[in-house]
């Protein structure tokens, strides 16, 4: 009799915990790539950076969108970036207010769905903090590459 009671308890626990597991998986995003940058009306140029889950940091300012590799992130910095993006509430931000000069962040998930945020000013603290974090990564990679080029 005891094995059937244990089996019954196990089945009941699985049935109780299964909805919570499914819900938590649905709430997690799986961002694999972030594209961000800015557009200047005065120069008619878009500066666009891409950071992907393969640790590559890419840049383009061309209309043909041809990307140039400017460096790579460490594995730990890549994990930290995507963990920060996935744990943030940035995917719930709906902002599409470009102006003459504007900034943008586009998040691309594993299923290739995209979430784009565009603003001229005052995007909110979280969006601004994430944009600054992304810019800091590019600045760090760029200055690291310049230092390596000078020392060679």
SSE blueprint:
Elements: H1 2-27, E1 31-40, E2 45-52, E3 56-60, E4 68-72, H2 75-87, E5 96-97, E6 102-109, E7 114-119, H3 125-151
Parallel strand pairs: 5-7
Antiparallel strand pairs: 1-2, 1-6, 2-3, 3-4, 6-7
Keywords:
152 residues, seven-stranded mixed beta sheet, 7 strands
Describe the structure.
By secondary structure, this protein is of the alpha+beta class. It is about 45% helix and about 30% strand. Strands 4-3-2-1-6-7-5 form a 7-stranded mixed sheet, with helices on one face. It starts with a helix and ends with a helix. The C terminus is likely disordered.
Separation of termini? Answer: 77 Å
Radius of gyration: 21 Å
Q: What structural class do helix, strand and pairing data support?
A: alpha+beta
Identify the strand order in the major beta sheet.
Answer: 4-3-2-1-6-7-5
Number of strands: 7
pLDDT average, as an integer? Answer: 83
Order of helices and strands: HEEEEHEEEH
Structure annotation, total helices: 3
Largest sheet: 7 strands, mixed
What best-fitting shape do the alpha-carbon axes yield?
A: globular
Q: What percent of residues are in strands?
A: 25-35%
Uncertain segments are: 19-27, 147-152
Helix content bin: 40-55%
